[in-house]
Structure prediction request, 165 residues.
Amino acid sequence: MHSIFLVYLRKRMSKKEITIDHALRATWQAVIKMYNEQAAQFDSTMATGFALLSIDPEEGTPSTALGPRMGMEATSLSRTLKSMEERGLIERHPNPADGRGVLIFLTEFGRENRNFSKDQVLKFNNAIRGQISPEKIDHFFEVIHVINDLIQNKKIYNPQETTTK
Prediction:
């Protein structure tokens, strides 16, 4: 997969023109497509699988915690949860700790689908780890950490806070 992606990028752009954001976006789009193809076998989507994995299977999860956990906007999350409820994957119950809030619980069918989603994520991770050395995986996570730190701490578009190596 790694070499196919690089061939694709090199065909589209010269090596100089490949930007980090483009590589991230293209890779994430490929991952989304792959997961959606797997989920489609069960009349589902990656978003549904991700939501299933984000819900605590024992305690349930406050609906207000799901959006930030998944990086999803309220409107998209609302649509996803409505679809999941209609398919019998989740149930909503009042949150006893917060009278205005709702807890999302997995149904038995939801737990089965959660397990399938978890298996797909583990297969993906194992396949990648089987092709890339642990040292390179560590470097990948170091780079991801730096990118997230730069973004979250607003160091990219504020030059006085940006440091270079």
In short: The longest strand covers residues 98-106. The two ends are 30 Å apart (CA to CA). Residues 108-131 form the longest helix (24 residues). The chain has two domains: 1-41, 45-132.
